[in-house]
TrEMBL record:
GO terms for molecular function: iron ion binding; trimethyllysine dioxygenase activity. This is Trimethyllysine dioxygenase, mitochondrial. One of its GO terms (cellular component) is mitochondrion. Its EC number is 1.14.11.8. The keyword Zinc does not apply. Pathway: Amine and polyamine biosynthesis; carnitine biosynthesis. The gene is TMLHE_1. It catalyses: N(6),N(6),N(6)-trimethyl-L-lysine + 2-oxoglutarate + O2 = (3S)-3-hydroxy-N(6),N(6),N(6)-trimethyl-L-lysine + succinate + CO2.
Length: 367
């Protein structure tokens, strides 16, 4: 024992295992300290003296046994302890954050999920591969879906709980202007992410073309993380400002005024890799969160960012026909559409980020 730590030399490793005494006491998993039924701790931070030291400890076989000053006995599985290091945890988070970036050209040859509705409903491996595609590429498709709202809802609820907003749980839209949103028109929609005026923007969005009798209405997807990778490589100062400059977004209609302020880019607090893009030029509020002395730099940065998003090499255009649902990661993939004529009705729904990550984690696709 050295200072406030216990050092264990494993025979299978040249590097010793070092564990803080307070951490060890906090991570005792006996029935007095941990509820295995609810998977919750039973002791508080205040129950553990900050200068606590074992009165005795011993390695017996594959277990570390500790006696504490109050005679409490703790037993730890060394195999599990050996994985409980900051370095290994950080590596696992890095692995979970790893994504395959794509351009309009490269996505054509990537094995993203495109599955049939019957297989998706009945085959667990197909469902898992579908979620894996959402994690890795940010996009996945279901085909041969009867074009109605019931089957659209069934497709989402096969894997996820639906995230309800003021648009409803499931929603359908056309050009009837039911909400103060450009999606409810026939106009061109530039690439954007949804819900920027919410503090909990949807993690996944599903879109299903239910009917279209006219022309146009092609769907646009852009891999925002690929755009950021390009900007970080060629304009690192711009990238850093996108991660720090606060932008306010808002949604206003009768009886509602939603606002939220955050940087365009959110980084993972541990890996410092992009975790979320919040970009919707339509929903930007008056630019009051930036000093006037910094405004020229801000608009210059936004023009560089927008130009990369709108570059043809990053824009994946395709026609979404009735019977095909596209799911995409709303924290990564920007979406839009071309203008259209005729009668076009879309259906869909949102999935919260925490729900998406929970499903991926229970499938052991992320840690």
């Amino acid at each position: 024992m050295t200072g406030n730590c216990i050092t264990i030399q494993e025979s299978s490793s040249s590097e010793p295992l070092i564990f803080n005494n307070v951490w060890l006491r906090d991570h005792c998993c006996c029935s007095q300290c941990y509820n295995n039924d609810t998977k919750q701790r039973k002791i508080s931070f205040l129950d553990i003296p900050i200068d606590i030291e074992p009165t005795h400890y011993n390695v017996t076989g594959n277990f570390l046994e500790i006696t504490w000053p109050d005679n409490h006995q703790s037993t730890y599985d060394l195999a599990k302890l050996s994985s409980c290091t900051f370095e290994k945890y950080k590596a696992s988070v890095h692995a979970s954050c790893k994504r395959t970036l794509w351009s309009a050209k490269s996505i054509q040859s990537l094995p993203y999920a495109r599955v049939s509705f019957p297989e998706y409903l009945c085959d667990e491996n197909v469902a898992k591969n579908f979620v894996a595609s959402l994690v890795k590429y940010g996009v996945a498709f279901i085909e041969k879906v009867p074009p109605n709202m019931l089957t659209t809802e069934l497709a989402i609820k096969r894997l996820f709980n639906v995230h309800k907003t003021f648009f409803g749980e499931m929603w359908a839209f056309n050009d009837n202007k039911a909400h103060n949103d450009n999606a409810y028109t026939r106009e061109f929609l530039a690439a954007h992410t949804d819900n920027m005026y919410f503090n909990d923007a949807a993690g996944v969005q599903a879109l299903h073309c239910l009917t279209h009798t006219g022309e146009g209405g092609e769907t646009l997807l852009v891999d925002g993380f690929n755009v950021l990778n390009d900007i970080k490589t060629n304009h690192d100062d711009v990238f850093r400002r996108l991660c720090k400059t606060n932008i306010e977004s808002e949604y206003i209609e009768d009886g509602r005024h939603h606002t939220y302020m955050a940087p365009i880019v959110k980084l993972n607090s541990l890996t410092q890799q992009p975790e979320q893009i919040r970009y919707n030029a339509y929903d930007r509020a008056p630019m009051l969160s930036i000093p006037m002395s910094e405004m020229t730099t801000f608009y210059s940065d936004m023009q560089i960012f927008a130009k990369k998003i709108q570059s043809p090499e990053n824009e994946w255009w395709f026609k979404l026909h009735p019977g095909t649902i596209v799911f995409f990661d709303n924290w990564r993939i920007l979406h839009g559409r071309s203008s259209y004529t005729g009668n076009r009705k879309m259906g869909g729904g949102y999935v919260s980020r925490t729900e998406f990550m929970s499903v991926a984690r229970t499938m052991k696709l992320i840690s």
